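anyone else get weird line breaks when pasting these?? whatever heres mine. first is seq + tokens for prot A
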Amino acid sequence: MDRETAWNLINSSVKNQNLIKHMLATEACLRALARRLGQDEEKWGLAGLVHDLDYEQTKDDPASHAMVAAQILAGHNVDPEVVQAVKAHSGNVEPVSLLDKAIVATDPVTGLIVAAALMHPTKKLANVDTDFVLRRFKDRRFAAGANREQIQRCSELGLSLEEFVTICLGAMQCIAGQLGL
């Protein structure tokens, strides 16, 4: 599946614009991480873009989240590594590959970064820096839904928390217009 096909599938399946923005943010972060780690940027980006394809359908049934998406993606002949990463991000299967581990850490960090931007006086990603996000990270009540343990799994990628946040923040700043931030 190429990006255009994935984008069309998302637009026909996902109605919540904030969810679409989250998927775009995850795509941008995974592309940047793939570049940093010498991995396949297209494959990693695709995994980020489609990872929550079924969220609206499965939000009341966490055990089926990502499993429905995996079935949809498999029906579109998506690379099995992408399908595995989608399943791994939900916590329903163990992350094994570098891509699996990257998506597990990236999924919640996008929410933390967005929340940090929204609390910044300017409400703009361009004015947020890594230190600002890391200070928010330490406050467990801030963006409480952003699972800190998952974010810290960036160490499994060989990245410090600071480096990981810097990469993801930079990626999201590059698409700030699409994110409305």
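and prot B, same format (seq, then tokens)
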Amino acid sequence: MLSFVNSFMSWYLKKRIPTMEYFFTNGIAVQEQVFNDLLVEIKKTSFGRDFKLNEVHSIDEFRNSVPLFSYDDIKPYIDRVMHGEQKVLWPGDINWFAKSSGTTSDRSKFIPVSYEALEECQFRGSRDVLTWYYYHTPEAKVFQGKGLIIGGSHQVNMLTENSYYGDLSAVMMNNMPFLANYLATPSMDIALLPDWEEKMVKMIDTTSTENVTSISGVPSWTLLLLRGILKKTGASTILEVWPNLEIYVHGGVNFEPYKHQFDEVLGGPITYRETYNASEGFLGVQDEEGKDMLLALDYGTFYEFIPMSEYGSTSAKTKWLAEVAMGVTYAVVISTNAGLWRYLLGDTIIFTSKDPYRFKIVGRTKSFINAFGEEMMVHNAERAISAAQKACNCAVSEFTAAPVYLEGNSKGRHQWLIEFYKMPDSIEQFTIELDKELQAVNSDYASKRKGNMVLEFPEIVVSKPKTFYTWLKNWEKLGGQHKIPKLCNDRITIEQLLKINNE
């Protein structure tokens, strides 16, 4: 039976390959069509009437008519939908909301999820990951086993009848087709448990006896589960438990600092594939290992990009796909088939190819350190952590960093709080390697470190076990796509973590 299912799904998925290959050379035309389709829909909404979009007929007119929106800006419209009003942001009914990390004014964001966003964006993206895998791996047998999904939880949004919210993964699990549900593990009653710690125990108990062929989840939470399974089973490697495991689909954070740990835990080669799957939309997929992700062009999302050199300026102008350049760091702006319009996503990317459109995620618009002109971004920090791990034969579970500001005659420095799964022999040597790599990848940081003129040698505080876990638990962010802020230009997060660490 499962052999037939695998053969059918292989045939079904590969039917989409010619369409995806078309995007390689026709990306601009595809995005123009997406824009025109979205423009038809937005004119049917309260939002469209508020901004007189019946009079808009082009991308330039749209950019001139609709301002850029942060979550706090668009929240009054979302609140109306959450209270039961429809046709506010999208002409179709919206009954689901993806709950994600909060803003400056709220602990959580509630992102509307339409039927179209589920079918044409989230589910299409999930299928496309496997489409490319089956295309490049004719012997693939993913559908002859179970797919382990490490997601979040859901609960009923009591504002209105028949209105629900949860982590994006939970929203998707609640709406999955029958076959996908049948081939998923753990069962829905476990996968959607609201208590993450209870769910983790039950996931370990039940999935350890399944024939798991694929895994999808955020690396940090996935490692936690895999190590729990090794402890329960007494196995040395995961491939002893799941010998038919073929592919791990990851996203949410840079995988590079975790890859060595996965290689050790798994105990043998499997395929890794990266996705860019945010609560706001499925925005990218890696078609081949070793290549950067492809921008998801036909998922009902129209993209604009703000050069980070202009970000925050009142005169900042967005560029759409026809106007972007390679090697420039851009903040991502999206308009979607869930009713987000010119929405500031908060992520930053760099295009590495325009034929086809490939990109790397390099950080967050609010996740950086620039207290002394060093302009350190998340991808600098992650690369330095990876290099220091390799040089010192250790493993980092979590980290965050923040500036220690100038006081009196003292100079500034960066303070790192790091939780190690495997400690280095020498913290001093680890710090030397970290600092050396940061200077190699960031010339601004290097110039500030020269002669300790502005920045002193970094300070590393070794975290007690579970410090970061406790912080996430205190903020109700266990599981799903929740993650620790890697860099902060203020000391709010690191002081909260240091308080936990010192207790």
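btw re prot B: Residues 81 and 88 are 7 Å apart (CA to CA). The two ends are 55 Å apart (CA to CA).
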